[in-house]
Amino acid sequence: MGRQTDDLETLNALNRGYLLAAEKSDVAWYTEHLAEDYRATNPDGSFVDKAGFLAASDGPTPSRASARPRSPSSAWATWP
After folding, report:
1. Would 76 disulfide with which of 11, 20, 48, 69, CB 3.0-4.6 Å?
2. Could you state, in order of their start, the residue ranges of all structural domains in the chain?
3. How far is CA 17 from CA 8, 28, 73, 79, in A?
């Protein structure tokens, strides 16, 4: 069970980092941790590639309340 615990800890740490980077507009964190083929879905259903995501992430951010995890039972439910 050690590896499963390590994997969950890694996922939780990455999730916290992703959310903190959003709050702080930390483009450097995203640049380091997101895959080159990263794609995000916009609220309108369109997609943006890593470069577009990084450009949109650079600067002041509106409230991120809508980005909070919706399911408290999911692995993504860890919120700093």
Report:
1. 69
2. 2-60
3. 14, 11, 19, 10
